[in-house]
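May I ask you for just one protein sequence along with its backbone structure tokens in two labelled lines?

_____
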Amino acid sequence: MTGMTDAHADTASPAGASAPGGDTDTPSLVTGLHEEVSATQSAADAARGHLRAKRGRYHIADTSAKDLTSLGTATVKGGKETVRLQQKYKGVEVLGGQYVVRMTKKDGRRAVTGTSGSYFTRLKLDSVTPKVSEKVAVRRAVAAVTSQLGAGPLHKPAAGKKATGEAGLSGAADGVTILPRGTGVLTRHITVTGVSPADGSPVKQEVYIDGHSGYPVMQYSGIATFAATATATGGTEAAATAADASAAVAQQLVVKGSGVRYNGAKTEVNLYQGTDGVYQMIDYSKRDASSPFNGPMLATYDARGIDVSAASGRWPSGIKTFRSTTTDLGADFTDSGAVDAHWAAGKVYDYYKNHFGRDGLDGNGGFVYSLVGVTDGGRPYDNAFWDGSKMVYGQGGDGYRTFSADADVVGHEMTHGVVEHTANLVYAGQSGAMNEALADYFGNAIDLEANHISMDDPDSGLLGEDLCTDRAPRDCALRDLDNGLTTSKDFVGVSYRGDNGGVHENSPIFSGALWDIRHDLGGDLADRIVYRALSAYMTPLDGFTEGRNAVVAAAQELGATKAQIKVVKRDFDAHGIVTGWEKALGVDTDTLIAKDNIAGTGVGAGGGKYAVSRSDEDGSEPYSVWAGNTDGKGRPRLMSGNNGDYNVYADTDGRTVVWVDFSATATVIKARPVSGGIEKTVGSANSSVSSLAVDGDYVVYTTYDPYMGNPHIGFINMKTGVSGMVDGRPSTATALPSVKDGKIAYAKMWPETDGYKLGVEVYDTATGKTRLMPVDPTGVVGVGQTAITDDGVFWVEDGDGTDSGQAGVVRAALDGTDRTTVVPESADSDLYAYQITASDDAVTLLSLPPGGAWTNEALPKLYQVAPDGEGDVQRVSCDRGDQVYPAADEGTRVVWLDGTTGYTNLVTREHPAGTC
């Protein structure tokens, strides 16, 4: 084997070449081998035997079937075998720990030709038995998702809706998993499903709860959508259909019907005639004629009137296939999107079968289900997604057709199923962006082939271009693979907070390179190379660099010429996918802590000090709380115990640091003087605690019990031990607190006889009295984060529900007088106030446009203005990526967590940058 650095991972000789793995001794890619192994054993046993025999190369200590479990063997023409092996540690699955062994078998002999993937050699856990119970883990996962989704301003519920937990989020335990961070993090994997309490959108969130402390160390969406925002089991209807088919031997399994697509083209579609004589949108034509009751089935279901929340991660009750009394499908089948969905599903199946010999999404002839026409609370749902078992297409509206109207959308969603059953790229960060890129690439390839479009067509790279009713294709398209200009310099520096770490907006970097390769090499060769890379080289946690190496290696394996391989490398180079590309992203801020690598825990500042949670470089260490000087002088100081618990939500007023300690059995609030001294437990709660703020003797917090409904604000006097809540009504919601001189400000929503009301209230701990601040007299529709300074109370206010989500910043005196607009709400403004923080000299707001594209320009950015609103609103920093959790210190200095570089860094600026 020839060792080499990452910088030369795809340029070395293919004879026994190897690329090193990241944070592991096992190489991420080995090519050019011809090492014989047993031809009589199973492919999996032969693969494990090879890894065992070459331990000096792979450094895989345990190659037993128990800790290196076979995920299956794919065999393709020419005797090529691809074995996927799942890494386990002491019998527990390692997330993304997947290693691939490629072999050839012919003439009674078998040889290994290469390997690739991620096998983590540095895991070292004393125990793989979680201290946290499954019940506690589920409860905390649901609370974490609810807290994340509801972190923004309070809004009134829709007419007829309640304001208490109607979304019905629920969690289901999916076993114990080890996250491959450092020496390993033992977690309970919980899947949380339901609908978002913030906007009613479908939720399927994968949450990993630390097994020792119960803190949610990672969470991301498991819904692979077209736009940014195992064999399937189809429920009773699918089972009834199969039984119907088996009983109806006399009936025709495949009946030729016809229908009209959205574009006006009349097309043939395959139907099934049931025992009742009705023709159903079920296609059995992909089955072997000698075995008509076994094999793939494509079924298209009428989901009109079904809410998207009922179709995400579950099978809607009572749903049926589209049905007709004749084989000539009428206008209703066209207008609903049924014809396009059914026709395109067949084209996708044929593409994978004809080009690669793949039998369905799972490769084993599994059923393919399409649900067409879901809505969102009775309104249009302009999106489509793969939820792990089926395709779901929104009904469309507001200028959009049903989302099955474009074959590249159908190909995209079905390809997510292919990805899941091959490399299973984790749908977050760079691996998620590659997942999206491959879905875009193959969705586009399928669309061009099915509709006989040449890649020389100037619109050939468009995706979703046929979805609109009132816009030209180029104006309608959601993405363009022929982007040419999208490179790694355009990488969106976003955390899992948004778009699962930029999976949609970062995908064009990789898909653009793949599209260029297809244009330069031709569809046939390029498609075979990319599919081989996906099915035989890539593994779940691969990023752009590993993806490039996989494509280059696949091209070499498939016999591409030197000139063709040079083209492949050139196209990746043109999109900036080269080793070390992440290091080229610059910033204009002062770094207080580099590679802080925490998520969702916030930052606190005041009195020249900051407080923040901190982990190690790979994010594997349980979070501890550190404090330091906001001017960067001196070294940060450990405030919490480094005790294996997760210590989070830190805040400081310059004298005291407070935080929440998550342990296996409790969540407690702790405090310690900045100057040192004894750590004290000042409070505890059985439910989720977040949003801490401290000033003087008082600490305030938000508590949320996902099974009781609304959030509520609590407070503790750390000197006297007196504690309480600012409200005591379950139907009232209080959130987003701030505190100064014993007065607590917070957003509030409460019911009255004529509906829910919104406002901002101040609670005086000395008297127990409350005072409402003057909100927009025309009727506020949203109130957000509060901040108290010597100038009074500041808050985010959305007073116009007809604009596109803009919100302003308002100030009033503590007695409720002197209402002043600090930042006006304007439909013409680029500011979308989401959170604020304030000192006596400046108000800093986080602007977060709702929805829309996840681009660097649309990521949350910080702006600053004088407390009286006079003067210009200025950008705090010109950093291009995520700017989140701002905390005002003294003067105009602000600290925050910044994701520009791809890491989570704690940064600061003393003065605003102005314009960028």
Notes: Residues 223-421 form a domain with the Elastase; domain 1 fold (CATH 3.10.170.10). The chain has 15 helices and 53 strands. Residues 1-15, 230-251 have pLDDT under 50 and may be disordered.
